[in-house]
């Protein structure tokens, strides 16, 4: 298989959902757009099939629902090792009043505790939204080899939108990045959440 004959079917024309509300993840508000066509640069491990990605992304979306249930911006993450989830996390920045309580940070910490190692070298991280610079930094430090995410975050994304931390050749670790997996579902969850918040505030 060549690098360009990618086995993954990634939607390149996902609908654009725009949001303008400030959130715990960023001071300037939100916006979500379709993924960008940069798959050609990545060759994920052959044993990881797209169907599997959807399976695990559903777990991340279930985490996002936990966040939504307590009034948090719905973002979820799981870290998968072999055929098991070894770390889960959902956004808890409001609940904990903790700026670092992003879904990825919580899932990475749980996964490291599970393995008893600060290096998550055989793991795949699934997150519903493109990681921010903080989480991308944590992913690099944890040496996670493959990152799969859903919707792009043009306001804060560090995996193609604003920065490309996960694939920066100047760092001592680079990830294979697979964007756009179940992006519509992730984006719709976020859009619906902010619609609801605006409606509540309007009353
Ligand atoms: Zn983050």
Question: How would you summarize what this structure contains?
Answer:
It contains five helices and seven strands, in the order E-E-H-E-E-H-H-E-H-E-E-H. The protein is α/β, with parallel strands linked by helices.
Q: Give the H and E element order.
A: EEHEEHHEHEEH
| Major sheet size, sense and barrel closure | 5 strands, mixed
Cα distance spanning the termini: 56 Å
Each distinct ligand: zinc ion
Features:
alpha/beta, five-stranded mixed beta sheet, globular, 5 helices, two-stranded antiparallel sheet, 203 residues, binds zinc ion, 16% strand
What this model shows, in words?
By secondary structure, the protein is an alpha/beta fold. Helices cover 33% and strands 16% of the residues. It contains five helices and seven strands; from the N terminus they run ββαββααβαββα. The protein has a five-stranded mixed beta sheet with strand order 4-3-5-6-7. A two-stranded antiparallel ribbon has the order 1-2. Helix 1 runs parallel beside helix 5 (183-202). The longest helix is centred in the N-terminal third of the chain and has 20 residues, at 50-69. The protein is globular. The protein starts with 16 loop residues before the first strand and ends with a helix. Residues 1-41 and 43-50 have low confidence and may be disordered. The site of zinc ion has 6 residues, from helix 4.
């Amino acid at each position: 298989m060549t690098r360009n004959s990618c086995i993954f079917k990634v939607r390149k024309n996902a609908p654009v959902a725009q949001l303008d509300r400030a959130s715990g993840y960023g001071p300037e508000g939100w916006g979500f757009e379709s993924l960008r066509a940069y798959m050609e640069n990545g060759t994920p491990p052959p044993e990881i099939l797209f169907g599997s990605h959807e399976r695990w992304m559903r777990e991340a979306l279930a985490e996002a629902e936990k966040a939504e249930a307590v009034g948090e911006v719905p973002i979820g993450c799981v870290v998968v090792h072999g055929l098991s989830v070894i770390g889960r996390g959902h956004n808890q920045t409001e609940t904990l009043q903790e700026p670092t309580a992003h879904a990825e940070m919580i899932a990475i910490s749980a996964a490291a505790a599970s393995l008893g190692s600060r290096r998550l070298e055989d793991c795949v991280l699934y997150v519903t939204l493109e990681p921010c610079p903080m989480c991308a930094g944590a992913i690099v430090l944890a040496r996670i080899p493959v990152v799969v995410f859903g919707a792009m975050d043009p306001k804060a994304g560090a995996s193609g939108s604003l920065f490309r931390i996960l694939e920066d050749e100047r760092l001592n670790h680079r990830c294979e990045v697979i964007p756009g997996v179940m992006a519509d579902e992730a984006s719709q969850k976020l859009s619906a959440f902010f619609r609801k918040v605006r409606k509540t505030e309007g009353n």
